[in-house]
From TrEMBL:
Entries under Gene3D superfamilies matching the protein: P-loop containing nucleotide triphosphate hydrolases
UniProt cross-references to SMART domains, sorted A to Z: AAA (SM00382)
The species this protein was found in: Streptomonospora mangrovi
Origin superkingdom: Bacteria
Start and end residues of each stretch annotated as Disordered: 253-281
Keyword Transport recorded: yes
Protein name, per record: ABC transporter ATP-binding protein
Domain ABC transporter: 22-259
Xref: PROSITE patterns: ABC_TRANSPORTER_2
């Protein structure tokens, strides 16, 4: 397949499709019809830069989860195009899409979603086992050490803390070195210390191994771990922030929460990072 360039010039953070792990090009997603019609995404164009940690933020109902699901091939768009690792998802049939999700996308969910009867190690290798692939031994070793689970590998999820379970889930998502790891509120069920560990791990996986990571979060202190924050409002991109810190993210969120709708569509301003007070972890 020939990858045509996005039709709009304002893809965030990268100038060429080749620099992007994934992108959404004029994506709309409509649920229901008639009186119950909801435009969850309203012509979104954005790029997910390769090898970086991107956070998606916005008020409740702004379309964060819908966007993530469309980018990850978990949901179909109503119109527009989603390209992941050079593959146009909107052209794939169900089987090809299922295979792509299995082989080229990693997921981390708020609720961990581990298999309770399997050990930590078996959970980590499960997607590769299902796909009939052997994970490289040296890489698996490195991964286990990077998530700090060396002495917990034989434990089942019920024998692990929430933070440990989420680190298993992160290792499972990272194991196949997917095009993108998508994390949906990964710290939502964790105490703050465990949350920081998981966020540090996602950030380090981008920095050390060039893993592209996308995280949906409500939490400005979590978003501050990312390299880039994309803000949504009413199903549209309302701006972005490079090298975010907690206070600046909080300010932007207050503006979005207060203004809602069109006022939130402030121009993307990558230069406006590093506001007073810092708060960057
Ligand atoms: N399956 C669905 N059927 C109908 N409407 C839906 C469906 N999923 C989402 N929506 C609507 O689409 C809009 C965006 O929802 P979405 O869950 O993407 O927002 P969000 O920003 O992730 O919200 P939250 O932060 O509360 O999780 C909302 O108005 C929501 O009610």
């Amino acid at each position: 397949m020939t990858l045509t360039a996005p039709t709009t010039p304002d893809l965030l953070a990268a100038g060429h499709p080749g620099d992007l792990a994934a992108y959404a090009d004029q994506v709309s997603k409509v649920y229901g019809r008639g009186d119950s019609r909801v435009a969850a995404l309203d012509g979104i164009t954005l790029g997910v830069p390769k090898g970086r940690f991107t956070a998606i933020m916005g008020p409740s109902g702004s379309g964060k989860s819908t966007l993530m699901h469309c980018l990850a091939g978990l949901d179909r768009v109503t119109s527009g195009r989603v390209v992941l690792g050079g593959t146009d998802l909107t052209r794939l049939g169900e089987r090809a899409l299922t295979r792509l999700r299995r082989d080229r996308v990693g997921f981390v969910f708020q609720a961990f979603n581990l298999v309770p009867t399997l050990t930590a190690l078996e959970n980590i290798t499960l997607p590769a086992d299902i796909a009939g692939r052997r994970l490289d031994r040296a890489w698996l070793d490195e991964l286990v050490d990077s998530v700090g689970l060396r002495d917990r590998l034989r434990h089942r999820p019920s024998e692990l803390s929430g933070g440990q379970q989420q680190r298993v889930a992160c290792a499972r998502a990272l194991a196949a070195r997917p095009d993108v790891v998508f994390a949906d509120e990964p710290t939502g069920n964790l105490d703050s210390r465990s949350g920081r560990e998981v966020l540090g791990l996602l950030r380090d996986s981008a920095r050390r191994t060039g893993q592209s990571v996308v995280m949906v979060t409500h939490d400005p202190s979590a978003a501050a771990y990312a390299d880039l924050v994309v803000f949504l409002s009413d199903g549209r991109v309302a701006g972005q922030l490079a090298d975010p810190d907690q206070n600046t993210v909080l300010e932007r969120m207050k503006h979005l929460d207060g203004a809602g709708g069109p006022a939130a569509s402030a121009p993307a301003d990558p230069a406006s990072s590093g506001g007073p007070g810092g708060g960057r972890p």
